[in-house]
Write a structure and sequence with these properties.
heterodimer, A: alpha+beta, Arc Repressor Mutant, subunit A, ten-stranded mixed beta sheet, 17 strands, elongated, B: Amidase signature (AS) enzymes, eight-stranded mixed beta sheet, 11 strands
Chain lengths: 492, 485
């Protein structure tokens, strides 16, 4: 395998293969109640406690569309720069399974609520556009639990009828890394919009991954396999890597690839055939006669459009333009809505005379390290944006040095203490009186005459020694810039 | 009063309101007659004890402002009734007791009516003779071993035999109007969206509609007034201004234009039916209305269209009866085996036939040729009516191409059975209201019905026409109580 110019190719003897990937992402709509019933949707509830007669498909029960879920889907469509279809149709996808009480899933087949759109990926070497084919609304199924009893399967219908958005990409992705960026970008957009919490551990975001390979430079698509229901980015990447290599091996052996549905075994790190094209279900889609076509007015869409918050791409652009951040810094800060919020709060609290670079460095450096170590989200940060802003300002205005700031930061972690108070209480204020520093330096040079001579003779490395001594003598409080200036002057 | 069960709904309500009769008197009378009429096999579930208790309770504190004060009635066993077994005439729901009430029956109880029991019907309302019921065929009170029609056969038989003063049925392709015609009673299929489908066991969702069945037009209008409400729990329920059908009922139909569609004069139609139709034309003229010959050119395609659309929807609607959650479950080796055995043993032959047809017409490769084409033809049929209603206010046709037939006569010939619905099916496909009223007898003395089809939401108009014709026809049902020993 090689990664030339960030191109992901699979190499075999004389041949190079390109991997083509398309994703069908299932994103759970952030909503208190289900798509066609008023049952709750809380994660982790006791089995079968969030089930209505509609969800359990009792005789004579009828679905009624949840308008909130429709709004969420349209908002997501707007976030994907996509066409909003003013008329969409709910269809029945018919198949039998124990956790599918109706015997059909209500989905959208021919006329989805959202049409074509696009997502921009921020790649290390620029941007890449990934096409969105469509987004449609559908019901989730319940859950079959096979391992509680040797004889019986148990069914939990809490998830039955929960609203999902299926977001189908065009086959525009070319590597596991692009897939990772794509999923993260989708999740970021939906979290900005508040339409999906993107929590993969809880199954709020999962994907069917379509993989095919073709000789590098070929324009034809190869036969694809669909890997069903993968629920983490890491597994998606592993599955693609395995599946692409499997397909390449088949081609190299002169065999053909069967179009089929496969499962990814996370323990063995391999994909396995689930069913072939011949065994594919005939879902007998037809418009659900219990529901009228879903029609939304221009005003309805416009109202939603007017209330779309600033999304990552726009925010990034603004951070670059307004705060003069580098594209790299901006990308990091906007990737997660809570990080962006935190950063903007820091910026606001820093007031007029602010040092943007310093703030970015502190957030992406010290703060991220702490969050990482403690396994915390930024929303749970032990240091508030307000106090971080004060700390950055204390450095900026020379009250404390960057080094002392690290000590102060450590102390802030315990109960989000005000850095100003810490500096006062601990007497950490920086010494910025040139006369006092000069006296201090004179004494050091006096105590280290020989080294001073060596320095003057050209052993410039020793400059650091003198700085260290000065810092030590001032217990780290002397203004490092002043130390530098005065030392240089004295050692000339 | 010994002849309580002979009274019309209107008379019963009046007598209860005037305190000449108590709810208990009336309920007892209908229970007694029902008890003596077991041979008709109209009831699947009797709820007599509970009915009597409710009647007594009503009499202790009667609310006489209600529209159906303390009036007992039995309903088709397709309506889910809270705590009362609801089978849809099927083995697969033989043990099913809903925890909820259908909107239509809820509306009835709210107006003071009392449930007597659940009435026999074709399995999942699929049939035209009530012979597909798991609970056996129903006798037509008109004559022994005569079918009452279907699928609301138990309902028609119970009204005709005076086991209940009124009832409700459901009509997907003629299931109210055809049995009404066969039993000499009045049956109205309202406009699609007029009565909520919430809590009614679904057959074909885009066609199903509940409606009243009664001994006369006025009773029918009163019951329609009670059951027709806008219901947000049914997404296809329509919020339109509903009339006070019984209060606004009038026999003045002077100047109304009544269409006579030539395509309903089908090959092989018995002369008696043609004669009845001509008599009907004369009646409306006598009432001061005008008849106009019209054309509904796609009528011929209605029956094949119906037998694609209805089974397609049914095949999907009945998928939920899988033995997993409720109802009958057969033992199986594994999930698939359990499904197959449950559904093979739980559903009768006609239901299985329609599930097969429906599954077939929805299959990939056949969808366009059948289901999609049927949807297009359905639109054309609807357009026919729209065109016709530019010229006329209502349409008059026979209700059925024949009178009631003998039990067993058509069970082995599904197509001849399906032909029963030839005049009623187009109305369902177009979502229009239609009413069948008894208009005469054939040579055997069996009742024959005429159908009046209205514009969408124009129930008042067809009720008025039916009301006016009813006066002229002066039909008398010939019930001999042959089944009472």
């Amino acid at each position: 395998m090689s990664k030339k110019n960030s191109e992901y190719l699979i190499n075999r003897k004389d041949n190079q293969y390109e991997v083509v990937i398309g994703l069908e992402v299932h994103a759970q709509v952030l909503s208190e109640s289900k798509l066609f019933s008023t049952s709750a949707t809380k994660f982790g509830a006791e089995p079968n406690t969030q089930v209505s007669l509609v969800d359990a498909a009792f005789p004579g029960m009828l679905p009624v569309i949840n308008e909130f879920c429709v709004k969420q889907a349209i908002k997501t469509g707007i976030g994907l720069n996509a066409k909003i279809n003013k008329r969409s149709v709910f269809d029945r996808k018919n198949y039998f399974y124990a956790d599918l009480p109706q015997g059909y899933q209500i989905s959208q087949f021919k006329d989805p609520i959202v049409g074509e759109g696009k997502v921009i990926l921020d790649m290390p070497d620029g941007q890449k556009e990934v096409g969105i084919e469509r987004l449609h609304l559908e019901q989730d199924a319940g859950k079959s639990i096979h391992d509680l009893d040797p004889q019986n399967t148990f069914v939990d219908l809490n998830r039955s009828g929960v609203a999902l958005m299926e977001i189908v990409s065009k086959p525009d992705l070319r590597s596991p890394d692009e897939v990772s960026l794509y999923i993260k970008k989708l999740r970021s957009i939906m979290r900005y919009l508040g339409t999906c919490d993107g929590n993969m551990q809880e199954g709020s975001l999962r994907a069917d991954v379509n993989v095919s390979v073709r000789a590098k430079g070929s324009k034809e698509f190869g036969t694809r396999c669909e890997i069903k229901n993968v629920n983490s980015i890491k597994f998606m990447q592993m599955a693609i890597e395995y599946e692409a290599n499997r397909q390449v091996d088949l081609i190299e052996e002169g065999k053909s690839i069967d179009q089929e549905t496969r499962l990814f075994d996370t323990k063995k790190n391999e994909t396995r055939s689930m069913r072939s094209k011949e065994d594919a279900h005939d879902y007998r889609y037809f418009p659900d006669p219990d529901l009228l076509p879903l029609e939304v007015s221009d005003e309805f869409v416009k109202e939603l459009k007017n209330n779309i918050p600033e999304l990552p791409d726009d925010k990034k652009k603004r951070f670059i333009d307004e705060f003069k951040l580098s594209p790299y810094e901006a990308t990091i800060l906007v990737s997660d809505i809570d990080t962006a919020k935190y950063f903007e709060e820091v910026v606001a609290k820093m007031g007029k005379n602010k040092d943007m670079k310093l703030a970015v460095n502190w957030i992406t450096g010290e703060l991220f390290a702490v969050l990482n170590n403690k396994n915390l989200e930024i929303s749970q940060s032990p240091v508030s944006a307000k106090n971080l802003a004060i700390l950055v300002n204390l450095i900026k205005n020379g009250t404390i040095s960057g080094k002392i700031a690290k000590t102060v930061f450590e102390l802030m972690l315990d109960g989000d203490k005000d850095p100003q108070k810490i500096v006062e209480e601990k007497g950490l204020k920086q010494q910025s009186d040139p006369k006092a520093i000069e006296a201090l330096i004179d004494k050091i040079i006096d105590d280290n005459r020989e080294k001073a001579i060596e320095y003057k003779q050209g052993k410039e490395k020793l400059f650091g020694f003198f700085v260290g001594q000065a810092m030590k003598a001032s217990a780290g409080k002397a203004n490092p810039q002043l130390i530098n200036e005065i030392l240089k002057k004295k050692l000339q | 009063m010994s002849d309580i069960t002979k009274q019309t709904l209107t008379e019963l309500v009046e007598n209860i309101k005037n305190k000449k009769l108590s709810s208990t008197d009336v309920t007892k009378a209908f229970i007694e007659r029902s008890e003596k009429s077991k041979e008709l096999n109209t009831y699947i579930t009797e709820d007599f004890t509970s009915a009597l208790n409710k009647a007594k309770k009503f009499d202790q504190k009667p609310n006489l402002d209600l529209k159906l004060p303390g009036v007992p009635m039995a309903v088709k066993d397709l309506f889910c009734t809270k705590d009362v077994k609801t089978t849809a005439g099927s083995k697969i729901l033989n043990n099913f007791v809903p925890t909820y009430e259908s909107t239509v029956t809820e509306n009835i109880w709210k107006e003071g009516a009392i449930l007597l029991g659940k009435l026999n019907c074709d399995e999942f309302a699929m049939g035209s003779s009530n012979e597909t019921s798991f609970f056996g065929s129903v006798q037509n009170p008109i004559d022994k071993d005569l079918v009452p029609g279907g699928s609301s056969g138990g309902s028609a038989s119970a009204v005709s035999g005076q086991l209940t003063p009124i009832t409700i049925g459901t009509d997907t392709g003629g299931s109210i109007r055809q049995p009404a015609s066969f039993t000499g009673t009045v049956g109205l299929k309202p406009t699609y969206g007029s009565c909520s489908r919430y809590g009614i066991v679904a057959f074909a969702s885009s066609l199903d509609q509940a409606g009243p069945m009664a001994q006369n037009v006025k009773d029918c209008a009163l019951l329609q007034e009670v059951i027709s409400t806008y219901d947000p729990k049914d997404s296809t329920s329509i919020d339109f201004k509903r009339n006070q059908y019984s209060k606004e009922l009038t026999n003045n139909i002077k100047g109304k234009k009544i269409g006579i569609p030539k395509e309903y004069r089908i090959d092989g139609m018995p002369k008696e039916i043609e004669d009845l139709w001509q008599k009907g034309i004369q009646y409306v003229k006598d009432c001061g209305a005008e008849t106009i010959d019209i054309s509904l050119p796609h009528t011929n395609y209605a029956l094949p269209t119906y037998y694609i659309v209805a089974p397609a929807e049914a095949s999907s609607n009945l998928a939920r009866y899988d033995g997993v959650k409720y109802g009958f479950r057969a033992k199986g080796e594994n999930l698939i085996d359990m499904y197959e055995k449950t559904r093979s043993e739980g559903f009768g032959a006609e239901v299985q036939r329609r599930i097969m047809i429906g599954t077939y017409v929805l299959s990939s490769g056949y969808y366009d040729a059948y289901y999609l084409k049927a949807q297009k033809v359905r639109k054309l049929i609807k357009n026919d009516f729209d065109e016709a209603y530019k010229k006329v206010d209502a349409i008059l046709t026979p209700s059925t191409p024949s009178s009631a037939f003998k039990i067993g006569e058509k069970t082995n010939d599904p197509v001849s059975m399906y032909l029963n619905d030839i005049f009623t099916v187009p109305v369902n496909l177009a979502g229009l209201p239609g009413i069948s009223i008894p208009a005469g007898h054939d040579s055997k003395g069996y009742p024959l019905g005429l159908q009046i089809i209205g514009k969408a939401f124009d129930e008042q108009n067809i009720l008025n026409i039916a009301f006016a014709m009813e006066e002229k026809i002066n039909f008398k049902n010939k019930i001999t109580d042959w089944w009472i020993k």
